[in-house]
Amino acid sequence: MQKNYKKGIFSWFGYIMPFFERAYHIKKAGFDAISLWWEDEREIKRTEMPEVVREIGLDVDYVHFPYEHCNSIWHIEKNIFCKIIDRYSLWFEECIEKGINLIVLHVEDNPQISPNFAGIDNMRKIVEKAKEYNIKLAVENTRKNEYLDLILENIDDENLGFCHDASHDILTGKGSFTALKRWKSRLFCTHISDNCGKEDNHFVPFKGSIDWESFAADFPKEYKGMLTLEICASMEEIKTLKPEDYLKIARENLLKVEEKIINA
């Protein structure tokens, strides 16, 4: 079993400041890596972000694609699906040019259409397009895991895996890590955060009600990726904590999660 993990955090953690300043604070707090949302910000283009991250000595764990229009994966109409695969193809090309080969995708955004095998055919096309660029895709558990489950049940490909969101899993699994238990053998990356049991709060671990002992017990021992936080400071935290203090607490608590995983 791995004895330690690289530790990352999502580039947006709640404090409003330019991208470079957020990356600097993340580096100063002792994190190893950043995960990126693949969208331009006011002062920086998305394609410039990886270079900024690496120049200050951090790795890029993965890029998270925006999930607007992801429901079109499940549409039978070719013209609807073509729009999203064209968009993904452009982003695949951008990412591989920047040395990024792990992408997180949502496969549903509360769609009005049931999971279906037209969607599986569409998802196979997305996976094949990603493979052309030697990119691995991690589909995330969100609100309706029947879409995720149908994809992973029917597409067994080394380039298609799972991004586990701890907060989502507790909310949809009614207190149990249902998605992690089922798909941990295909785990590519993580979204670690805590919640109050009712909403996706994006709390720092141990600031909510999640049972991290249970998380550690279900976590795959063979996992070789990073432990990455997806957290967002509350208004109260922003008022009372400097960003460097918030990030220090976040990393310290991620170390506690790591310790539980190692000792489980």
Automatic annotation (TrEMBL):
Residues 26-242 form the Xylose isomerase-like TIM barrel domain. It holds the Pfam family AP_endonuc_2. It comes from the Bacteria. InterPro entries: IolE/XylAMocC-like (IPR050312), Xyl_isomerase-like_sf (IPR036237), Xyl_isomerase-like_TIM-brl (IPR013022). This is Xylose isomerase-like TIM barrel domain-containing protein.
